[in-house]
Amino acid sequence: MLDQLQKHLDQVAEFTPENAAAVEEFRIQYLGKKGVLAALFADFKNIPNDQKKEYGQKLNELKERCAEKIEGFKSQASGQSAKLGSLGDLTRPGYPLPMGAIHPISEVKNRIVEIFSRIGFNVSEGPEMEDDWHNFTALNLPEYHPARDMQDTFFLQTDPDWMLRTHTSSVQVRYMETHQPPIRTISPGRVYRNEAISARSHCFFHQIEGLYIDKNVSFADLKQTLAYFTNALFGTSKIRMRPSYFPFTEPSAEVDVYWGLETETDYKMTKGTGWLEIMGCGMVDPEVLKNCGIDPEEYSGFAFGMGIDRIALLLHQISDIRLLSENDLRFLEQFQPRF
Ligand code: PHE
Asked: Which atom from ligand 1 is nearest to the alpha carbon of 284?
């Protein structure tokens, strides 16, 4: 009996009909009321008890194979008719396409751009290779100024007047040279510094700098703008401003935001204090305005600059900055867009 079943299974596997009529014939032969399966099922009671289990399993398998075969031919046939004539069912779901992921740097950059665009800032960009004027001199850093050492610069070997920009402040210079106030712009981009590579710093990273110039702009405006920003990005306006020094702003400050100490990454990123240093800022030095063709008697403004990478590490709880530029798919695939 089992042999007979196996024979049927083989026959079904080999069956290839030439047309729809042959499929129908096959269906009646196997699945019809007086078909093969009906007869085999009827025989079940005559099977010796010790073979019943195997027989039953094989029988069910045969039934499934027959149904699959018929279904297979049917869908093939309807596919062919769709190809020949109509477009088929236009409402059927599309094929799932593999989706790319958004790099955490881009994601955080987009968020920051969006937050500032809500209060009227546009986006400006500039070249990564800069000349001395835009990266240093116009920003109140003349040749031999000691503060040039604050930013370890990659100079072009062939022409030391050219370098990889060390900050996106160079874009602000370009923007002021070509626009008159009121100015509200943020400048995101990649910057380069000749620093040792470690889990916390890299020789290239990303910044967003902001510039606001108009009549009667004060330090209070700066503080309010930053509190709005940290609230929108980090969910807290708890910030502190520490006096600092930048050649292009006066007065200058460094801004810390209170992030807390909940995870290991928080600990590492805040050096165990809970406070994260996120940016430098200040009132644009009148000398810089003058260098860029803006009258400091009439206008004043503030500027700020922050590193995107560190914020991305924190928001995504990534413990090593190097992961951001290694292009390891196992890392990148974790940032699938959420819908
Ligand atoms: N350009 C500074 C830096 O790269 C940041 C900064 C921008 C500070 C604007 C003050 C004003 O560190």
From this structure: 11
Query: If you average pLDDT over every residue of the chain, what do you get?
Result: 88
CB 272 within 8 A of CB 183: no
Cβ of 324 closer than 6 Å to ligand 1, yes or no, is no
Fold of the CATH domain 104-335: BirA Bifunctional Protein; domain 2 (3.30.930)
| Closest C-alpha among 136, 139, 137, 138 to residue 153 | 136
Nearest-atom index, ligand 1, CA of 281:
10
Judged by DSSP in three states, 32 sits in coil
Q: Are 202 and 321 in contact (CB under 8 A)?
A: yes
Query: Using an 8 Å Cβ cutoff, are 81 and 55 in contact?
Result: no
CA of 90 relative to ligand 1 center, distance in Å: 55
Tokens representing 209? 């700098």
By the 8 A CB rule, do 240 and 256 touch?
yes
Q: What distance in angstroms lies between residue 212's CA and the mean position of ligand 1's atoms?
A: 14
Tell me the CA–centroid distance for residue 307 and ligand 1, in Å.
10
Structure-token pair, residue 26? 């096959």
CB of residue 167 inside a 6 A radius of ligand 1: yes
Say if ligand 1 is within 6 A of residue 168 CB: no
pLDDT digit string (tens) for 269-305? 788 898 988 999 999 999 999 999 999 999 999 999 9
59 lines ligand 1 (CB under 6 A): no
Instruction: Give the pLDDT of residue 172.
Output: 95
Question: Phi/psi of residue 78, each to 5°?
Answer: -70, -35
Kindly list the domain boundaries of the chain, sorted by start residue.
Answer: 2-87, 104-335
Q: Is the CB of 301 under 6 A from ligand 1?
A: no
Of 138, 246, 118, 122, the C-alpha closest to 182 is: 122
- With beta carbons less than 8 A apart as the criterion, state whether 169 and 139 touch: yes
Helices (H), the chain: 2-14, 20-31, 36-43, 49-84, 104-117, 132-135, 169-178, 219-234, 264-269, 286-291, 308-316, 329-332
Does the pLDDT value for residue 82 go beyond 60? no
Q: How far is the CA of 305 from the centre of ligand 1 (A)?
A: 4
